[in-house]
Amino acid sequence: MRYTTEAHIIAKQYLEQYAKHFGDDQPDVPEIHLPSCLTKKLVFKDYSLHCITNHHKAIKRTRFLQIWRMEFPNVKVRKHQKMTQCTECAVFKEAFLKKLSQDEFKKLEVRRKAHLTLQRIAREKYYKHRTKSQENPQQYLSLIIDNMDQSKTNLPRFPFVSKADNSLTKLHHHVTGVLCHSLQKAYAFTWTDQFASNCNVTLNCLMTVLDDVAKNNGGSLPPTLYLQADNAAKDNKNNYVLMFLAMLVKAEIVKKIKLSFLMVGHTHEDVDQFFSRISVKCHQQAAVTLPDLHQLISTSVKPMPYIQHINSLWDFRKLATSDYSLCDFKDIHHFVFRKADDKVTLKFKNWPLHSEPYRELDVTNAIPDLDVPSIVEGIQPEEVFRFAHGTHIQTILSIAGSRFVS
């Protein structure tokens, strides 16, 4: 019997933490992809340096790669990234392929490590917020919200695609996912092109989740809300969302909100694991109609997620419209809203670094009053389909239905 050595355990722990801090969970497959600027050779080099720094005995490269292969087969270093990759990582990857002098290589290594360290710090801040909400749900509420790739949920879809299926015009069905770490609960909201893809969807989903959390918390919310969102301007990172969050603080629905964004190209997190389970189910079973899709989502993860189809939207975007424009926040990844002495302040900085000071704005007078919003006027579903595809919705349903006629 071969006993596991201390060096083996350390190498295994190192790979596990490396994947956690630098890897991105994929939304379509149950895999974790490391940044494109890395190779297995560079990962082993980082491990060797870690062992030297911490006075650990390092195992040989062949043994290290064997542990990787056996223990972490889902952790990949892809030559070609399927998802949008980080620009800096792509530059590093291209540079490492060139013939470099020893001095040039060292300088590039320093820049690469600084870049990966920065994205790791941003990720660890999210993990910290998540843990705080799980350990103390009465004080902290942690949410992450994102949109799934719609190509996975267009209907109808079948596990085995025939040539005839390729000619079918499909109806777009979007899925917005939210994870509530305090309740350890997943939410899936489906919607169609009846509504524009903008922050109204985000804010309506957010308010539905907050309402559900309040019902599970005796009618009130924890005083601190941690909200993690994708770096998408039309959905999350815009003046409307910032003003709406400020409105929640001004109305004292919560006392403090932290809105955070991960580094572009390094944004895949636990909500993408949720999406990957849905995607796997989509490849395993047919979904012809919306109820089929809901059934598929309901069996994708345990416990069963909260599922809702959006038939109407409150126009929170219009409600949050203000003459005061918060501009130049493209590079900002950390926002904090807080109310004290009837004054609402917005603090922000590029990254959640202790060394970087907050900049602060008094936004009290710029915040609109929280009121009952109007309803978004959406296009009728049949009109959406006819306008987008030139085919009536009943046609596609009849074709799809014929697949199941014996």
UniProtKB/TrEMBL annotation:
Domain called DUF7869: residue spans: 163-352
Per its record, how is this protein called by name? DUF7869 domain-containing protein
Q: What is the lineage of its organism?
A: Eukaryota, Metazoa, Spiralia, Lophotrochozoa, Mollusca
